[in-house]
Design goal:
α5 runs parallel beside α6 and α9 packs across α10. The protein starts with a strand and ends with a helix. The protein contains ten helices and 13 strands. The strands form three sheets. A six-stranded mixed sheet has the order 6-7-8-3-9-10, with helices on both faces. Strands 2-1-4-5 form a four-stranded antiparallel sheet, covered by helices on one side. By secondary structure, it is α/β, with parallel strands linked by helices.
């Protein structure tokens, strides 16, 4: 569905963001894109959406070259950026103006999503809070029935009920013909939703695994002291001791939260590679 082949990209007067990045994404998944500030997450999403253009390499989405931005491509992709502009029109007027660009737009679903977020079509977009505007854009994007949904920090600015509603509607909206890519720093908000997990660091994909594989390869424990005789992948201080990541030698699936996984990959990359290549 999405193929990224050895792309290079840099901003003027800044270091290269990507030098030779490869990535392949298939349908039916909610990909979680994690990385430190400046790792290139937002840039990658804009490249996939055709909002930025690689200096080298190629990006194909649904058989289209993203940089060519053909109408048949644009009607199958919807991006919610972390920063965005909305007109001062009402929600209803926005729908009437922009839904015509998406031939499968489902007004019944749109109304359902809006009700779930406590929004009314007669409201003016200019009167909505930042979080409400995000909820509106998410509702509109899902109602387009497009095949690729790109969400950059979607839970920033959302209250707890809205975060819960967000997870619910995204989980219900995925099917084998759709792909979601969610970039986030709010790892806890995305647990039990995003899978596979992609981690960017220094312009490269340094980790790309399904949650099932992760749970079979790693185990996490809380320990008062670190036993150096046991194989430690990563450890960080916590209240009353340490949170320790080790290879899962027991064989069964274990729970590992995304924040610990991210820290382990970033700070113990070589040890993580050894575990997952074994």
């Amino acid at each position: 569905m999405i193929t990224i082949d050895k792309i290079a990209f840099s901003y003027p007067e800044k270091r290269d963001v990507f030098d030779s990045l490869d990535l392949s994404l298939s349908g039916g998944n909610i990909y979680g894109l994690l990385g430190k500030n400046g790792a290139g997450k937002s840039t990658l999403l804009k490249l996939i959406a055709g909002l930025l253009f690689p200096a080298k390499g190629n990006i194909e989405v649904l058989g289209f070259k993203a940089k060519q931005r053909y109408p048949d491509f644009l009607r199958e992709i919807f991006i919610v950026n972390e920063e965005f502009f909305l007109p001062s029109s009402s929600l209803r007027e926005y729908q009437m103006l922009y839904s015509r660009f998406y031939p499968r737009f489902n007004e019944i679903l749109f109304d359902e999503y809006l009700r779930g977020f406590g929004l009314d079509k007669n409201q003016k977009l200019s009167t909505l809070s930042y979080g409400q505007k995000k909820n509106f854009l998410l509702s509109f994007g899902l109602a387009t029935d497009c095949k690729v949904m790109i969400l950059d920090e979607p839970t920033n600015g959302l209250d707890i009920p809205s975060k819960s509603q967000f997870r619910k509607i995204v989980a219900n909206a995925i099917d084998e013909n759709r792909t979601f890519i969610i970039s986030t720093h709010q790892a806890r908000d995305m647990e039990n939703l995003i899978d596979p997990i992609i981690i960017l660091d220094e312009g490269q994909v340094v980790f790309f695994e399904h949650y099932e594989t992760i749970s079979k390869k790693l185990t996490v424990s809380k320990e008062k002291e670190i036993d150096g005789k046991k194989n430690i992948v990563y450890a960080e201080p916590t209240f009353g001791g340490y949170t320790v990541v080790r290879p899962n030698d027991a064989g069964g699936e274990t729970n590992i939260n995304l924040e610990i996984l991210f820290n382990a990959v970033i700070h113990s990359r070589e040890k993580i590679k050894e575990v997952f290549s074994a």
